[in-house]
Every structure is written in C-alpha cells, then in structure tokens.
Write a structure and sequence with these properties.
Elements (H helix, E strand, L loop, with lengths): L9 H6 L12 E4 L3 H13 L4 E4 L15 E4 L6 E6 L5 E5 L5 H10 L16 H6 L7 H4 L6 E7 L5 E5 L21 H5 L8 E8 L7 E8 L3 H12 L7 E5 L3 H7 L13 E8 L2 H21 L10 E3 L2 H23 L7 E4 L9 H15 L2 E7 L4 E8 L2 H20 L18 H4 L2 H14 L12
Parallel strand pairs: 1-3, 2-3
Antiparallel strand pairs: 4-5, 5-8, 6-7, 6-8, 9-11, 9-12, 10-11, 10-14, 13-15, 14-15
C-alpha cells in the first residue's frame, strides 16, 4: 500500500523541517527512488488531500522547500547525470535527474569540455531541479543570464500522478534577466514551471543547453573604494562599458566585514571596507595580459571620475587557483555566515530579513544611496552585497526579536514598492516561498494575481503541491 511508503520517523521529519530561514512541521517524509512509485505517491496524496512539498537540499531563502504540514518529498537519491553530448544541431547539452548537486553537474560538464553558467551561492549544496524551480541566477548571470535561458526540456509528474514532457520551441529573449514575482506568464508553457517554486509539478528529468567556452580561464579583480557613494558611482561607469565581464558584484557595508572574517581572506584586503568584485575570462596568457592591461586603463579612468584615485593602487588581482579559491570562499562566506547567525534568532521572533528587489540601472544610484541612508536610521545590523551589475543587490537585516523583525519587513515593503515604481521587481532570484507572500500584491495588480491563480488551478486544481508557496 502506498501509505506505508510515507515515513513518520522523527529523525527524517526533522531533516526536512527547516531551510536557511524558516522552520516547518511535515507530517510525513518520502525519498524518491523510482519515479513510477513517486507518481503513485503524489496521486495518493492528492486523493487523500495531503499537501506535497518538494525538498531539494533546503538551501532556499524563503521557506519554499519546507513543508508546514503533509509530505516532504526528497529528491536527493535521484542524482544521476544521464547524458552529456551534442544535439543534431551541434549544440552541447546535458540530461540529468533533478537531485544532482549543481556543483557536480558543473564539474561533469566542464570535464566534458563545456560550460553551464548558473552559479548561485549555494551551488555546492543546491540540487539542479531546485535551481530550475527558482530560476536560479548567481554571479555569472551578469554576462550569461539566468537558468531559464538554458532549460530546453522538462519531464514532469503532475499533481494527479500523470507524466508530461514539455520542450522549448524558441530561445528565451536575451533581455530576460531577472524574475519579478510568481509565475512567468510571457513565455511558453515550460516557462510557467521554471521559477514556479514547486507549486505546479515535480521535475523528474531535465535537458539543459550548454555552452562551448572559447575562454576557459578566469581572473578576479577586487576594487576597493573609500566610501559607499563612490563605489556605487563606479558601478554606473562600469556597466556603461561595451565589454561585459562574467560578474560584477558588490561587497558593501557589513558584508565586507564578514568577507574579511573568512580565514581564506588575503591580507591585502583586510583593511578595506567596501569593494567591487569583477570576474572576467581569457583564453591564453597573452590574452590575459591584454585583458588585464585593458581593465587597468579603464579602472584608472573610473577611479579618477569618482575622485578616489588613491584606492587604484590597492586593486587586488586573483589569477592562480589558490587565489581564486580564496576569493570564492570569502564571497560565499557572506550569506552562509548570515544564515547561520540569524537562524538562532528565530526562536525569539527575529531572523534574517533580506531584500531581493532589483531596479533598472538608471535608477540604481538613487535607490542604493537612499536605501543606505534609511537603513542606517533603522539602527539594525545590516549588510549589502551581490549582483550590483544587474541592479540587484541584497540588503540583509539581522533582527534579534519580533519587534525588530517587523520593522525590517516594513522597510523591505517600502523598498519593494519603490523598486516596482522604478520599473523593477521585488523578487529577482530567491522567489516568494512562504515568507514573502506580502510582496506579491506590491509587484502585481489584482488582475495579474488572478491570472496566476488560474495558472495554479490549471496545473494543480486541488492546490496540493507546494502549499503555502506564492499564494
């Protein structure tokens, strides 16, 4: 009988009871072993009105992978890379199960001579299926775009236990970079599933488009600035350049202190309090020399224009594997340390309150400087970092009690309203999940929300899947 597959073992339930910022209470746990059996489990849950929440590695920032009740369905064991090859058009691809860890997929693809760009902070833990469910981005999105751009075909298990395959018919427009909130309604049927946060169907098999990299090597430049204002003005000068680096990230106030606390941080950066992170690529050493020379000529002008030339001589260049790993560890240490610290505050009503808004670049300077001024007035611990090149920084507020937590949420709401007025969005990559549903009405008019509810009902009439996410 299917119900015997649903475990009530306390240890298993505890394993799936929380992500980085949220704690839930699943009643059952099930680890997918065979997708035919999994389809039968989902159909059974629908018949019994048992909510089903798909659990990846539970690195979500919104509670999306945590079950408040019902079944926590783990895909960790479905972790096989099925095929890497060339299609009939000569384009490379990978076919994978959803439980493969993204870092393992990226390495296997690289070993085969190809490149898969999405690179979220949690890539060492996040499962590929979950990155599709959130349309994950990451630092390389600045040049290469989000996950959506690479998804060619999905095999799905629907809420009634039946199976369905959908393939992309035409390429995603290159100007589609960041999410807004909820379902993507301006694309094909496959785009409704991408970024749907586990609310429409279970992703059981994935075909992804790969790139053939002509420049396989990377280097990183860390650009220090004497203050936040000059740093943001430099961003606008850099984003106006025709050459686009792989990444353009901010390590701003608060974040720089955590970055420097990582044991891998180079000594040369220990006294800096605000910097930009540029990652670029090159083919051979002569290409590297030419590229770095070009960057230093440009950066000399940038520092002159923002009246911060004294910082130019302190630019840090990372090229060796050891140097690159050190910088990568420091960059990823920031969100990991914040999540570790803030989870302890949840029991007192506090925790992390993070923004995920983004704005068009013409509004970035005012949005960032106004937010910085207002954030200081809140008198809460905060930091700002991440995808500044896309107009998509993350402001994190570290609240220790219920009162401060609500004050931070009220502030985030105001920032979201302003971002939408500027033509941006409230949820650029982390999604809505369970804890950010208040942002939906900020982003969308009632008529749009009704259309999204209609999409949900078409895919999942009984609202079994991902209950509590988005709606």
């Amino acid at each position: 009988m299917i119900h015997t597959l649903l475990s009530t073992d306390p240890d298993k339930l505890t394993q799936f009871s929380k992500d980085a910022v949220y704690a839930g209470a699943p009643q059952y746990a099930y680890a997918a072993r065979d997708f035919q059996e999994t389809a039968e489990v989902i159909a059974y849950c629908r018949a019994e009105n048992i909510p089903v929440t798909f659990c990846g590695s539970q690195t979500s920032m919104t509670g999306a992978s945590v079950a408040d009740s019902g079944l926590a369905l783990s895909l960790t064991a479905k972790n096989k890379i099925i095929d890497i090859g060339l299609g009939s058009d000569g384009a490379p691809y990978v076919v994978t199960e959803p439980g493969v860890v993204l870092a393992d997929l990226k390495k296997a693809v690289l070993d085969a001579g190809y490149y898969y760009p999405p690179d979220p902070t949690s890539f060492n833990e996040a499962q590929v299926g979950a990155t599709i469910a959130t349309n994950a981005t990451g630092e390389d999105t600045y040049k290469y775009g989000p996950t959506r751009r690479y998804v060619e075909e999905l095999e799905l298990i629907l809420a009634n236990g039946t199976k369905k395959t959908i393939a992309r018919k035409k390429p995603v427009p290159q100007n589609i970079i960041k999410n807004t909130a909820g379902y993507f309604m301006d694309g094909e049927e496959i785009d409704e599933v991408i970024g749907s946060e586990g609310t429409l169907a279970l992703i059981s098999k994935i075909r992804l488009r790969l790139l053939k990299p002509d420049k396989k090597n990377i280097f990183v430049l860390l650009l220090p600035f004497s203050d936040f204002d000059r740093c943001i003005r430099a961003v606008l000068l850099l984003t106006a350049q025709p050459h686009k680096s792989r990444a353009l990230e901010l390590v701003g106030p608060g974040a720089a202190e955590i970055f420097k606390s990582c044991k891998s941080c180079p000594n040369e950066l220990k006294n800096e309090n605000c910097f930009l992170y540029i990652k670029d690529e090159y083919a051979e050493d002569n290409d590297f020399q030419k590229g770095v020379y070009g960057w230093f000529c440009l950066l000399n002008e940038v520092y002159r224009n923002v009246d911060d030339l004294a910082c130019f001589d302190r630019i840090f260049l990372a090229k060796t594997d050891e140097q690159l790993k050190s910088i990568h560890d420091c960059r990823h240490h920031v969100p990991l340390k914040v999540n570790e610290t803030c989870f302890e505050y949840i029991k007192d009503g506090g925790g992390k309150v993070g923004t995920d808004w983004w704005v068009p670049l013409q509004h970035l300077y005012k949005m960032m400087t106004d937010t910085h001024t207002e954030a200081q007035l809140l008198q809460l611990d905060f930091l700002v970092f991440a995808h500044i090149g896309n107009g998509h920084p993350h402001w994190n507020f570290l609240t220790q009690n219920k009162t401060d937590h609500q004050r931070a949420i009220d502030f985030v709401k105001k920032q979201g309203e302003l971002a939408v007025r500027y033509g941006g969005g409230v949820a650029g990559e982390h999604g809505i999940g369970k804890i950010k549903k208040y942002l939906m009405a900020i982003q969308h008019r009632p008529a749009v929300l009704n259309k999204m509810r209609a999409i949900k009902k078409r895919w999942d009439p009984d609202f079994i899947l991902g209950r509590g996410n988005i709606f």
